[in-house]
Amino acid sequence: MEGNLTGKLYPENECDKEPIHQLGRVQSFGFFVSVDSEGVITHISSNAKLSCSLNANALLGTSLWELIGREASHSLRGALHQSTIINKPCRIYSLSLPTINTLFDVSVHQNGMNAIFEFEESNHTQVQDNILAAMMNQITGPKDLQDLFDVLVTGIKVITGFDRVMVYQFLDDGSGEVIAEMKESDMSSFLGLRYPASDIPKQARALYKKNLIRLITDVNSETYPILSVDDKSALLDLSFSRTRAVSEIHIQYLKNMRVGASMSISIIVDGELWGLIACHHNTARHLTGRTLEELELFGELFSLELARRLVMERIIVSERANATFAKVLSNLSVSHSLTLAIVEQLDLVKNLIDVDGIACAFNGEFQHNGASLSEKKINILIEVLQRLPEAEFYQLDNLVAADKRLTDKHVAGVLALQISKLPLDYIFLFRMSAVQEVSWAGNPQKSLSNMDTRQRLTPRTSFEKWIETNGDKSNAWTALDVERAKSIRLGIMELTIRHLHEKETLQREANERLELLIGELNHRVRNILNLVGAIIGQTSQKKENLDEFVASLSSRISALALGHDQLTHSSWNSISFKTLLINELKAYMVNEAAFTILGPNIKITSYAVTPIVLVFHELITNAAKYGALSATSSDGTVSVTWALDNNQNILIFWKEFGGPPLAKMDTDGFGMTVIKSVIPHELGGEVKFSPQLSGLQAQFTIPKKYIEVCKGEEVQYPPEDTPKVTTNTRLVASDDNHRATLGRAFVIEDNLLISLDLQKKLRRIGFKYIDVYGDVIAAKTALKKVTPQIVFLDVHLGQENSFNLGEELKKQCIPFLFITGYGAGIALPEPIKDVDVLTKPVDSQVLQKAIMKNIGEVLAND
Length: 862
Known about the structure:
- Helices cover 37% and strands 24% of the residues.
- It is built from 24 helices and 37 strands.
- A seven-stranded antiparallel beta sheet has the order 1-11-3-2-6-5-4. It has a six-stranded antiparallel beta sheet with strand order 9-8-7-13-12-10. It has a five-stranded antiparallel beta sheet with strand order 15-14-18-17-16, with helices on both faces.
- Helix 8 runs parallel beside helix 13 and helix 18 runs antiparallel to helix 19.
């Protein structure tokens, strides 16, 4: 069961269970082949055309590599290697096979232990425009979101040739609405029509997040079963498959819509499926693999642009809300009832949010202004809210649906703001009923039919506008309404605290309530600081790199907020240093094995918390951007250890290993200034730096007056200036002297992704330097300057091979290995016929064994 505006009206529990990723069939525009780790064909679609003489059944159990020859095998293995690195399908265009006189475009990806190859005949007649450049140029102009969507559908229609292109947005209740459309003039419009949530079930939405583009070329075309050696083709996961067939129910649904072909491009915002660019065609339509690849990349870029605009919109709304509510606070008086003072500001609140009335229920006192529920019904509403999951905001646009006792002629919807939990204080913003008309694409009521000896829901056959009228609801509360409500809630909390301080006649209950309000306000400090960071970013347009400025500022504010939270929880007493450290680092501890955090049980006084948090935030951020935890060193490690000297000062050691070579440091940046200066300036401590090629090392001394040693801890001066970072993933990792013998390696590989992947594996094994070259000439030039310990050669480098270079290395007695997609059976020239050959993708353990075999004797002699 798919989606694309075209869900199936099963019962939702049935609809959500259909295994649409395991249908075991493919569409007619391509064929499917799956091989195991040895290259043996385990699955193949019945329409496969890999050989002129052998059909699909005859190919099962045979070797794909032997069938298609070493040139094609080399290309497919290289693409498979890239696919495992980028964790998404990789595509090859115009691949030729010796077994058949046809050029193919091939999509390649890894599926568990199997590799999947999907072949389509190359189309050389279709003109390939620069889709990405054309579309990105179009979407940069519009300022308004609706204008952006209108430009989007127009551009996609022109480029793809589909008869109808729509932007389909998912709503809060799971349903969706067409918010932009471009179509042929003789087609009826779907613009403004809504589709029920069951039209795109859960598993279809999950697939849209995995496969960002989905093409159904011909609803009337035959589909072909996937054959397998063990009759388990239906269990094969086709989530990333391009040729994956479509549910029969979905095909019928498309036919009911009079759609001959469809395509969807996913719009992902903040990791969630925001909507779809949905395309329909009246007849069959097929797009080339290159066109789809550009459309998929454009979809990702458009998602980022939309996310950026939505964030900017929220920032602007928050700024306006803060300015308006500042006027509300300035008008409030603390000399009389707080609840009365708040409800008297209804007119100003109306400027902030479209409401018809306001009510306050504070500690048993009730006041209202404008359209409102009675005090009796307010108590019923509070009972209803208490049964819901705990939240700061509750949005209801149909009070009667929540509880029949809330029927009221004045109001139909409420936005409830919880100010405190004990006592239970609320502010209620009310909206009156509005006769709402929802335009559905056909009657959303599901119809039953008998199928498979049981009743099942069937696709609707009409998509004419079907209007549902509801007079019990108010206008729905939007995300922007909630953003504005956040300002109201925080302002009221601030006012409440001020009010409680100035009211001298309040008793003990009021003081307890004050503490609770302060606790809740502290809980919100980070959100306030994030907003401050965003506003500063918006007013700093003259910075050369605004994005980097905003990101750095926001992360530093978040670090301060984290330290503040921990002090609040400890009632501003001393904090465990290890806990403080882990809380600051945990955002980067995706791989806990990459961290060593070890030392005696000590506490840091409240005065020293903020300086230490700032320093370690800059250290971990620096490691994530440029050091051991950066994108180019996924196998790096960070060690943070500490010990007490004889004077009970604490010595803290920071050591990175496995990051990019660090020959020198930029000491002028703000982050490095914080690291060098904060502890000496604010705590009277000391800082020492030791930039190493293996990574940054640093030592910090914190005076004893900021330290509390817990019971049972021995005071012992550390035996070394810097602790060792331990790991189990390097050759002879337990011996730093031996590790030093793994000095320099050369990688000669013309594919950047593969060379970077090999570089990471060699660094993990323990090589200190790994130099990468893309051709033979560059490698020979480097060999004249330095002699590596071992060389890794790709056989095929552009238009040449590396055999001659291998023979030169042999003469110079430099160990080397071939790493190739041709496989271990490649024929090598006589002088180098005994050299080891590794097959792409290269397994780390196989690589390590081969290295030990070739240079192990050298290590032993060292």
